[in-house]
Amino acid sequence: MRYVHHFVVMALLATAVYYYLYAEGTALLLSSVAGLLSGVIPLFTFGCAFLFLREEKLNARMTLGVLLGFVGVLLIARPWAGGDSAISLQGVIDMMLGSLSIGCSFVYAKRFLTGLNISAVALCTYQIGLALVMLLAVTDRTGMAHITESPKALIGLALGLGLSGTGVAYILYYFIVERLGAVVAASATYIPPIVALLIGIFVAGEPVHGLDLVAIAAILGGVLVLQSGRRMAAQQASAKDAVADA
Prior knowledge:
mainly alpha
């Protein structure tokens, strides 16, 4: 019970709030568009790390990476578009807030949980268990049993979203955050946007526009520039330490 407040925060940031906002956003957007917007998670993670982790220092290249990523978001949202080509602004906002929530969770986990010598499986269990209680307390469960009427949907829910997308994913989440840090761990989230785009095109038959490809290039390019800026900052810090020790 000593660390239960940390588990509550993680249950909110990394599961309950994050899942709700992503479900809400996905319901309002094409799956490929929603997936593309999830690519901003590393950018939000960096922003939180810069504010709350002392080892993160901002430089010009890192700033460029963040700006480039948000240009990609703007191209996806297309607030200037109207009619049939318009994108749901509420859906974009939901996806962005969900990305902010999970982005903050990487930093919170790094700062408060990875040094507790608690196994990744145990951390995952506490987080998801508390999130389950929270969601059960506020969810309207009317009609929930209808999911059992479709074996494919039930299997996908249990194995795809439950076991793989939540259980295994969060065990790996804590494992990577502990060993590589919050920002590097969050960089793994630039893979899902590409997968979502491909599934949307080839499985769901959703349309894809040239601007969407430019947007994902901007988002992923922003992440890469941001990471190169972090490496440069780390090298400069190491060089200064070496000079100071000489």
